[in-house]
Amino acid sequence: MARSTSVQLSGNRRTALSLCTRASRRVEAREFYRNSLATLNEASMPYLVGGAYALARYLGVARHTKDLDIFVRESDLQPVLSVLAKAGYRTDITFPHWLGKAFCGKELVDVIHSSGNGVVVVDDEWFEQSVPDEVLGVPVRLCPAEEMIWSKAFIMERERFDGGDVLHLILARANVLDWNRLLRRFGPHYRVLLAHLVLFGFTYPSDRDLIPSWVMNRLLGALGQEQSDDVPRVRVCQGTLLSRAQFLVDIEQWGYEDARLAPSVRMTPQHIAQWTDAISEDIRIYDDVYPRDGAARRDR
């Protein structure tokens, strides 16, 4: 019995130490985030807060986050990182086409000026439509809900799918969303928005009337028109705008052109190569799933 009690106490001690360590890290992270925001304010740097903190404001539901997401214009990326570096934090431009970072030990702040697929660019309108608020006691401006929907709608990775955030934002904000701006933001990628709105009706059948009927009619009308148009002769895979890993086989083995190389997308072959090289091995589509001598089946 004594041995059993001793082991149990040791286990409790380890648990307590683990909890204290995690709590300490959360405190350190909050101080890092708070100091970063205050430092940027003192330097009059233009930025917006997004991610979990903005979601908490729009949804009224807080969730733990491993980092702080701030959004800037591309022209402000280096100045913002320089201010944070002068404050004593390590910084780098992790992916030039969309992301920089500031580090304090294991904690980090993401400094975002576009999206991983090169489609969702932070521009002046983000700031014009931003919402004043307070994060960790610091006055800030939040990313508009419309632009959050726009950016999150394209994240459909094997390891991360932001569709839940999109649907929750629509549920919470449908009555005040600028639907015209949202439609304009998606533009030629309107099918992505339509897909999420169809899923919204599936997820919340009793709330599907939150989506204005004219929005659905416009999107379905565009879909109907496109269905009657001639099929494009060039074989392009737009799946790479949704996932950097899951559609590599289409580009590398099946002869499709990469939609990320279109003039409207702000990615170069070098950007794509760097973004692809960063995919961890455990989320790649392996050759034993799609053999390199295999071809995509196209039954007609």
Q: Tell me how many strands there are.
A: 9
Sheet with the most strands, sense and barrel status: 5 strands, mixed
| CATH architecture field of the largest domain | 2-Layer Sandwich
User: Radius of gyration, rounded?
Assistant: 22 Å
Number of domains: 3
Distance between the termini: 72 Å
Element-level helix/strand string:
HEHEHEEEHEEHHHHHEHEH
Short précis:
The chain has 300 residues and is α/β, with parallel strands linked by helices.
Could you characterize the architecture of this molecule?
It is a single chain. The chain is an alpha/beta fold and 300 residues long. It folds into three domains: 26-143, Beta Polymerase, domain 2 (2-Layer Sandwich); 144-229, no CATH class; 236-283, no CATH class. The chain is 46% helix and 13% strand. It has helices at residues 2-42, 51-59, 74-86, 124-128, 145-152, 163-173, 179-186, 190-203, 213-228, 248-252, 269-277; strands at 48-49, 67-71, 90-95, 99-104, 107-112, 131-135, 138-142, 236-237, 257-258. The strands form three sheets. The chain has a five-stranded mixed sheet. A two-stranded antiparallel sheet has the order 6-7. Strands 8-9 form a two-stranded parallel sheet. The chain is globular.
